[in-house]
What does this fold into?
Amino acid sequence: MSHTNSLWRNACVVVPMYNESSVIAEVVSEVLGHFDRVVCVDDGSTDDSAALARAAGATVVQHPINLGQGAALETGIRFALRDPVVSHVVTFDADGQHSVTDAEAMVRRAVEDDVQVVLGSRFLGSSEQVPLARRLLLRGATWFSRATTGLVLSDAHNGLRVLRRDAAQQLSLKLHGMSHASEILGKIAAEKWSYVEHPVTITYTDYSRAKGQRAYNAFNIAFDVAVSRVRHAA
Amino acid sequence: MIIKILLVLALTGAAIMLVRGRPTALNLLVRRTLTLAVILGGIVAVLVPSALTALADVVGVGRGTDLVLYVLSVTFLFVSISLYLRLGQLHDRQVELARRYAIMEAELRERDERERRS
It folds into this structure.
């Protein structure tokens, strides 16, 4: 499958996945309808996610053991960047909550605005039925990221992002678990990367809700971020 | 109340270790020296229990057993933090190792497919 627009040809979509066999094939074929390169990082799934993703046409990199979502993203980014043609890396969740057309629009935005990072935001534009509890939690998260990084964002924890090659190369995620979203924001602030938020639609299904994080994990993330910031400052 | 000063200092030290603890040769030496000191002190305390009570008196603790409890608590805290840091370090290495393995495996697969096609 080759897409005539060279923009998409040079973007690589990275999809970290962990036990996603019920949705991954659909997500991969949907992404392949718009992008030429899809790298699925299987984070030690115990089901056949890897085989299904491969059959759907994705390149699969398989962690031999479960390492965490942050680690999977970093692996995918590093694998994507081996190809010198890749100009942008798109991070995309495996549970089907993101829209591929949003991803496409974000790559276009990254090229047209010439920014290093485009962050998806579910609160810019149409916030399609974000559950109330989620909305409150995410408001807390945006407040937290503003307090710790100084970035004023409308949505601090969206899995849909576009990183220009130079930013992706420098990123080098150290927090292997679920705290990578905060780590990325910290990096944007520290390295003074140019960034822009782009409105995206999140589809909340029962599946994505069940796969989502528990709200109290926010405190674990806050702890991770605090410790790693203090340790790096020291 | 010498013991209060000692305990607050020890706890502050634990907090500093949590923040900037790094595996240096000096840290290793300190750890080994403390371990030896605890073993020797333990032997002395077993053989001459009155020495322990005397030491407790000097630092302002009522009984020797209380002093032992304080030392044990502080030691446990330091051991826990040191293990926490060490495990974190091992995990970082494990992640990097598994990642390189995964990427290499994917590259081999890519090459195999290319050869099969040609």
Remarks:
- Chain B touches chain A at residues 18-20, 91-92, 94-95, 98-99, 101-103, 105-107, 110 (CB under 8 Å).
